[in-house]
Amino acid sequence: MPKFSLATKISVMTCLVVAGVLSVMVLCTYLYLERQFMNTTARQQNSLVSLVANEIDGKLLLTQRQLVALSGTVRPELFHDPVQAERYLGLQPDELETFDNGLLLLDAQGTVVACNPPRRDMVGSNMAYREYFQKTVATGKSVISEPFLSLRRKLPIIMVTAPIYTRDRHLAGMLCGSLDLLKTNYLGKLAEARFGERGYLYLVNQNRDLLVHPDRSRILKHDIPPGSNRIIDAALAGFEGTMETVNSRGAPLVSSAKRLNTNGWILVGNSPRAEAYAPLNMAKWYLVSALLVALCCTTLATRVAMRQLSAPLVRFIRHVEAITGLEQEPEPILITSHDEIGTLSAAFNRMVHEVHRQKRAAREHEAFRENLIQNSSVATFVLDREHRVIIWNRALEELTGVAAEQMLGSREPWRAFYPAARPVLANLVLDESRGALRELYGAYGRSQLNAEGLYGEGWFRVLNGQERFLCFDAAPIRNAGGEVIAVIETLRDITERKQAEESLQKLSLAVEQIPVTVMITDPRGMIEYVNPNFTTVTGFRFDEVVGRNASLVRSSWHQNDFFKELWQTILAGRVWRGELRNKRKNGELYWEAASITPLKGEGGEIRHFVAVKEDVTERRRAEEQLRQAIAVAEAATRAKSQFLANMSHEIRTPINAAIGMLYLLQQTELSPAQKGYLEKAKSASNLLLRVINDILDFSKIEAGKLELECAPFCLNAVLQELCAVASATVKEKPVELRLTCGPQVPEYLLGDSLRLSQVLLNLLSNAIKFTESGSVELAVDLLATRGGHSTLRFTVTDTGIGMTPEQQERLFSAFSQADSSTTRRYGGTGLGLTISAQLVELMGGVIRVGSEAGQGSAFSFVASFRHPTDEERLALAEQTRKLAPATAATDGCRGMCILLVEDNPINQEVGRELLERHGARVVLAGNGAEALERLNEPGSQFHAVLMDVQMPVMDGLEATRRIRQNPAWADLPVIAMTASALSRERERCREAGMNDQVTKPIVINELVTTLLRWVPAVLFPAEPLLPGTRQEESAGGLPERLPGLDLRRALATLESPALVRKLVQSFRRENLHFMDDISQALGNGDLERARRLVHTVKGVAGNLGALEVSRAARELEPLLVQDDPALRSALDTLKGRLEELFTSALLLEVGEEPQPGAPADQVAVDLEKVALLCGKLAALLKADNLNALGVWEELKPLVPVEQAARLEGPLEGLDFRLASRALGELAAYLEIEL
User: Fold this and answer.
1) What DSSP string describes 953-970?
2) Which fold has domain 379-498?
3) Does residue 658 contact residue 687 with C-beta atoms inside 8 Å?
């Protein structure tokens, strides 16, 4: 391969680069010039074509205007005189210069009247079929026709027309002038026009017909099909401008198109592309020639310049070759140029000087290294490749006691260490032997100084006879060629370190085997060590965590503030202790009890953190299970309390109605047998009420929610009332009841008198119950008085049946009595003594019992009471004085106007009757919303509101809150009526703003007392009570039994067979589509509406005695939740019960006999009674009370039939508002006031 000099290479490279750059520049210049030239050519050609097109447009318009002007001189009479017409055209010789094919005069029918030049064969011809004639007639304007061939000579012509009108604007004819496209008129001259040498013009219309063309044989030839001429296709599509095209012969052209404004013809100019772009091709050759000249000049100049520039470099190379291999430092080369070659020569001179300086330094360094080894504190010796000792330093002399003179040159270095011949590490490295290491050293391996070396360590005896742990390290020394020329071996006494390592190893074993997790991190939290238990707990291997952050096991359980506080603690140098919720490798969370301790260096800085952690997941799980169990127990207690509260409300509500009705019934005249029945019913009701109270008390005690009140009371009054109640239970038994009260027992005490009475009454009742004859004694003794407190002992002694020791052990267990025979004989729930014992414990005492079978029993307990202050005793006496006469009187509420808010119709009736018997005026409301309406009525003034707590639409609590929001009712007493006996219910009532509370069943004396507590004495008399007018009705007219309907229960509630019949039929009419309504609600997902429908049917059916329907609705109501499987079955059951009830309603309707209204002449006789009944009916309608239907049954026979019919319809539909208006009309008709 030929060898080229650097100058040649640079010259060639320079030429290539210059050629490339110039070529790119020439190419870019040519492309730019080409684009500019083509655009300029296109614009010039387009301007030329546009100029010609505008000129033709102007001439066409001028021609048209010329003919129109001439047509203005034509008289309409000429169309009827051909001779005169021809003479007229002959007088227009100048026009023939424009219209070179002649002039025609056509009449209105298109017949040629005359022509110039005269042509007899044309006169009389009809041109009505020509397009120009038809278009002129149609438009009434001058027209320039499309080219066409003449009729006789077949010449291509165009026709210009001008219509001529009569004075009354009728078309008389038209003047036509034709132009021959083959003649040299301004259109024909286009074919001869040229631009450049070969450029030409042609004219084409919208139908692709050539009008003007250099090739006259193509005129009016349709030989330009779509796609054959690109410029025409584009022009017809709306293009105007210049583009490159190819003609039908394949010649490239530059074509321009311009549309004429006059008639839409297209003027096209074509120029051969070679002719149009000829200057551009010439410029291209000029540029290429200039490029070649520039390349030749560049090559020559580069060659000359490189020879001059490389001359110093050639001299430098010759000097380098001359000094190669010299030991002495040569003379420097002198090159005076200031360019890169001069710089290179100066650098080379410095390099040569530095190389020789380094050789001297290397020799000096070798001597220094030998001195360094000799004077090193590390015992060292060196063997050459022949195993001879060449260095034995002073430290080794001191360690072994062998002088260097004895060992230098020797091949037996082992004599300094061992009693018998054996190889040292240096020998093994030289021989590349590893076999003897296991026998010679306790530990061995690769050298820590050199990967090719060896190290060994073990216990050896040194000069002074001590056993020391020595470490030997041997490594080869190689020359520049990589050959081993010697081996250096060092000895170190590491006895102290070895002892420390053994201690550390023991500690490490302890850490690795300890059953807790140990982690060591640096100050940044990067893990440096974990013990094996870490892998057992977390699942991460040692190599997976070392070098990673300790947050690797962190979970998202703790907040960032938790870890922020942790880091603040340990970075402050304090120990952090706590529990962490971390994450195992498999993602499982676990709990660790951790202790993190910072390790500090000598300067007090933190070097490491040590975390000792113990897995406490199982302990935490056990604690969590315990917490859950406690939570479940608490939830069960809350659920039981809520259940008992609800049951209290649900049970006390009917008990209230029952006891109230029994009370009202007692006020009537009864036979002795009826009184006996009544007493038994009342006793049973009271017994049921006591059982409910016992269960509720036991529940509250069990839940720890029973709290004793602390109020002043009179002990004598409590004991007297207690004995009075107990005496009533003795009845006919030969049992003497005695009360003994110690002389020092205080009269007034501070405590819970109600609970004290409950305990004593239970003990007395049990004593009387289990004593057939003999005595029962209650004794009260004062045990001590200290610090304003008195400790009393209460003892109840009887001479009854007594108890065995076994029975006494079970005495205070809930729901148990002495034995099963006791329960069967004496009855009871077994809760009384349990509750009493718990109450006594709350009072700070305990019930003690002493008894023998057949000898009677003695129960005693001790309770402590605080003494009331003088003010508290005076207040108690004053309250007793005020309440005593009022509660005893039957008119204690006289003058009061009370709003009774109760949703249950029966409870409404009971409450109203009780309050009216005590002199009050009662207004009824069915829910909280109605109560607010009654309060807002004009002129309403109530002294108190009795408010039921649980009601539909708006409950009592919400209604009370809204009452308290109105300042006008801020002082209006609101008293709650609730069947719940829990203290939480009382607290809710107080929070809502209620003043007090009475418990259902309502006790009239308690109710009157509560009212008097909040309502001041009313001075005006109460309104007179409406005398009872309800007629006694029998069950006559009703069947004895009907399917699905308990007629006896219905009559007991409604007290009127007619009312029963009417309400049952009304229920059927109102609920015929009940199942459709509830199915629609369930289909729409409106469970709230479905529950409301079922709840309404349940309540109304129960009041009507339709117990099966009410029961089915009650079972369906809790199932109205999403996707309950029992829902469909419950719906089918309710549907069957409703169909059964509807059938019975139809039977009642068939058996009903019409009751005609009273004759008109009988109305005056009963007018007073009618007025009373109308007044009562108006009040009931205003309160939306269903008892209005019963009053109407009494009123209906007393009013005229027509008026009765107007009122009966709204009442049957339960539209009480419309019924009120009808009642007003009835009152106006009878001239009575409501």
Assistant:
1) SS-HHHHHHHHHHSGGGT
2) Beta-Lactamase (3.30.450)
3) no
**What is the four-CA torsion angle of 956, 961, 967, 968, rounded to 10 degrees?**
-10
The CATH number of the domain covering residues in 501-622: 3.30.450.20
Asked if residues 273 and 253 have their Cβ atoms less than 8 Å apart, the reply is yes
Q: Return the DSSP state at 670.
A: -
Q: Check if the beta carbon of residue 607 is closer than 8 Å to that of residue 523.
A: yes
CA dihedral 436, 442, 446, 450 (to 10 degrees): -100
Q: Which amino acid is at 254?
A: V
Task: Taking each helix axis as running N to C, give the angle between helix 753-769 and helix 832-842, from 0 to 180 degrees, rounded to the nearest 10.
Answer: 150
Which DSSP state fits 980? -
CATH, domain range 198-294: 3.30.450.20
- Measured from the Cβ of residue 859, the count of other Cβ atoms closer than 10 Å reads 24
Alpha helices in 102-197 (DSSP H): 131-139
Q: SS in 3 state form for 799-820?
A: CCCCCCHHHHHCCCCCCCCCCH
- Stretch(es) of the chain classified as CATH 3.30.450.20: 64-180, 198-294, 379-498, 501-622
Residues near 149 by beta carbon (within 8 Å), at least 6 away in sequence: 155, 156, 157, 220
Helix, coil or strand: residue 530: strand
Q: Which residue from 744, 817, 811, 740 is spatially nearest to 783, judged by alpha carbons?
A: 744
Type of residue at 299? T
Question: Encoding tokens for residue 84?
Answer: 């005169």
Cα distances from 218 to residues 163, 183, 252, 403, 1061, in angstroms, run 32, 15, 21, 130, 113
- The hierarchical CATH code for the domain 707-819+828-869 is 3.30.565.10
* CB count in 10 Å sphere of residue 164: 22
Q: What is the DSSP letter of 415?
A: G
Single-letter amino acid, residue 890: T
Residues of the chain with CATH 3.30.565.10: 707-819+828-869
Per-block mean pLDDT, blocks of 10 residues, the chain (1234 long): 66 81 83 79 84 88 88 86 86 80 89 86 86 90 89 86 89 91 82 80 87 83 81 86 81 88 88 78 81 84 76 74 69 72 77 77 72 79 88 83 84 77 81 74 75 79 66 85 85 77 72 82 90 89 89 86 90 90 89 91 87 87 82 70 62 68 71 72 66 64 67 83 71 78 84 84 85 89 86 92 77 52 45 79 86 87 86 61 44 80 76 79 91 87 89 90 90 83 72 85 74 65 37 50 73 62 77 86 82 76 77 82 72 86 74 42 55 84 73 80 75 74 82 75
Dist. CA 203–CA 268, nearest whole Å = 6
Residue 949 CB partners (closer than 8 Å, separation 6+): 649, 955, 956, 957, 976, 977, 978, 980, 985, 989
| Alpha-carbon span 631 to 623, nearest angstrom | 12
CA distance 187 to 981: 121
In CATH terms, 891-1014 corresponds, of 3.90.550.10, 3.90.1720.10, 3.30.1490.100, 3.40.50.2300, to 3.40.50.2300
d(CA 182, CA 219): 9
Nearest 10 degrees: CA dihedral of 237, 238, 240, 242? Answer: -20
Residue type, 20: G
**d(Cα 204, Cα 224) in Å, to the nearest integer?**
10
Adjacent-strand bridge partners of 614: 593
Tokens of 413: 């270095």
Closest CA to 190 of 93, 37, 49: 49
Homologous superfamily (CATH) of 64-180 is PAS domain (3.30.450.20)
CATH number of 1047-1150: 1.20.120
pTM: 0.31
Question: What DSSP assignment string belongs to 574-587?
Answer: --EEEEEEEE-TTS
How many Å is the Cα radius of gyration of the chain? 66
The encoded tokens of residue 1153 equal 């006999």
